[in-house]
Amino acid sequence: xxxxxxxxxxxxxxxxxxxxxxxxxxxxxxxxxxxxxxxxxxxxxxxxxxxxxxxxxxxxxxxxxxxxxxxxxxxxxxxxxxxxxxxxxxxxxxxxxxxxxxxxxxxxxxxxxxxxxxxxxxxxxxxxxxxxxxxxxxxxxxxxxxxxxxxxxxxxxxxxxxxxxxxxxxxxxxxxxxxxxxxxxxxxxxxxxxxxxxxxxxxxxxxxxxxxxxxxxxxxxxxxxxxxxxxxxxxxxxxxxxxxxxxxxxxxxxxxxxxxxxxxxxxxxxxxxxxxxxxxxxxxxxxxxxxxxxxxxxxxxxxxxxxxxxxxxxxxxxxxxxxxxxxxxxxxxxxxxxxxxxxxxxxxxxxxxxxxxxxxxxxxxxxxxxxxxxxxxxxxxxx
Length: 383
Fold this sequence. Notes:
Layout: H1 2-25, E1 37-43, H2 50-70, E2 78-84, H3 89-101, E3 107-109, H4 114-126, E4 130-133, E5 148-150, H5 155-168, E6 173-179, H6 182-197, E7 201-208, H7 216-225, E8 229-233, H8 236-248, E9 254-256, H9 264-270, E10 278-281, H10 292-305, H11 311-330, H12 337-346, E11 350-352, E12 355-359, E13 365-366, E14 370-375, E15 378-381
Parallel strand pairs: 1-2, 1-3, 3-4, 4-5, 6-7, 6-8, 8-9
Antiparallel strand pairs: 10-14, 11-12, 12-13, 14-15
Helix pairs in contact: 2-11, 3-4, 5-6, 8-9, 11-12
């Protein structure tokens, strides 16, 4: 019995020693700077949202390479590992688990899609892994937990701002069309509540499925309701079809949209029907800005990818550089996710491509929302 007891004790000792060695190899308990810090990136690289994922991937790669050249992330190199979410919560969960367990990621940037971010957030909280979303806007993310941050304003902020602008311009009777998903439904609901609270009227509210291409039936009902404006809470492709069909039906009222329409694909698809539409730019990013930081980014991006970057690229570029700044501040002394979380919580204002921002106590971004329009076939500041 004594011999068996010693064997058990030795076995337990070996297991504990192995576990400590594994944790030490990943730098989980080491006070010394790790040889590198792994940053995971979850993006929809396949599926319906793949165009957004590809834009985000390019921006992160560019930010990573420029940071490596300038050594701006400090003495600890950042290793970036990309995983595909396919804009699916289940796929995103699998990607996150892989990044955390197999790759040892301490920070994960992602996702573009709010539904994926919301699905992953509980795992980030459970495993004390910092989750930084570049573009997720669902209001529920506000309460996701202390390890979850985002640099994109909540739909609550965007929907409220558009409604306030519309009613302040005398647009009192408004029709609403929204995509039937988390994004469209949430932002439309916030918009409608704010309009009513400010004395306005929602004359018609209609949802549509993401794959819908024929909107004339709903638009005919909207025309009969004689609104002052039509608000479309969707993405750029569906909004382009809606405004084109609305103008063809003779609906000549003010059109309102979301940040998501600022994409060259919207201008190409909507054509002259897009003229005059008003929308908020939650990112604050303007590719035509004369700000030196923006000019360098846009010029470099065009040279590397032969395309003009938009809000998706700007948000992901800022997200990586924010992680870079945090790593430079904490990794040499304390490389833990908790140190990075504490840095985000108390960081000084960060000057990004979309302006200066910080985080509130819920990890939500604090930054102004500006308004834009389409003028002469181009995106421009609203006068």
